[in-house]
């Protein structure tokens, strides 16, 4: 390992810091939270149990910031064989060819501006429990499929079945009867200082378009029977992928039939504010420990100062800095957006739904009042998680 970088990433400081974090959480924070949230009226949401209040506080005040501070990598390495995975199959997907019809529009422009290139990526097929994993991957007649783009602020998590975000894919498989498999896309994650910079925009978008192309052109799925699913930053990529397909009318690659978003992060510019903004008033009821600028800097790379954060609809389609909103979502497929009423970036979902509706998109917005950001991936967010998944699956099956 290099000698540079923040102190906390080096031993013995890293070990000492972890010991301090664990010690102070158990001895000081935990007792404090138990007193602070002892009675229902003292809790961020009176419906919440004490256990949930403590879990949310632990995420917000301790866990969310840790990977970056300590340089921890929570992505999972690809498996060495399918036998390592349960009811899942690992595949490689070729990057877009720069001579292909898909490599057009904003993707081509952004690639020129940034020097970011297409690459081969990994993906995981999540199968219904008990499915023969050696099955042929080609689409069967009339088969429906979902392509899940996971969350993690563009720099965390993975599509691996052991990752927390896979709970969304697994939840949809468990509750929808029209889906028999979901493709989880392991798009490239971004990084920036103090890490070596890598995979800024449009790397992840290139990867998601390549995964969609794989479903349609290699496996033969009908676009109308594909749902692109995304949570949090994955919701941003799901919208951008759909936008690329809608705006460019690519021969042989029409847009998907549906779009399903859970707590999508669509205003990277953080264009709203004020005391009534959920970013302020939901501070104590969400897991996000404030939005540091690391994800923006990592994802935008050299474009960070180029205004793209504020007004590029491929990056911030719910931004308040976009003043001409008419037509912004024109031609988008049927969309379902689910968000938590207790989350910081609730307005991203509300504004996107409003803009879609104004453009004539068939959109449904569902807000689970007391749920946190990206609640469908947290198995401790019950009963909201199951409720939300059931509603989304019902929409998917309709
Ligand atoms: C799984 O499918 C393969 C290929 O179709 C077949 O050869 C194999 O016998 C099947 N395994 C089981 C357990 O059904
Ligand atoms: C999409 O799925 C429906 C329902 O399974 C099926 O009837 C239809 O033929 C499929 N579309 C295409 C183009 O295959």
From TrEMBL:
InterPro entries: AB_hydrolase_3 (IPR013094), AB_hydrolase_fold (IPR029058), GDXG_lipolytic_enzyme (IPR050300)
Pfam families: Abhydrolase_3 (PF07859)
A GO molecular function held by the record: hydrolase activity
Transmembrane segments: 15-35
Annotated keywords: Hydrolase, Membrane, Transmembrane, Transmembrane helix
Alpha/beta hydrolase fold-3 domain ranges (all copies): 147-376
Protein name (Swiss-Prot/TrEMBL): Alpha/beta-hydrolase
Annotated organism of origin: Dichomitus squalens
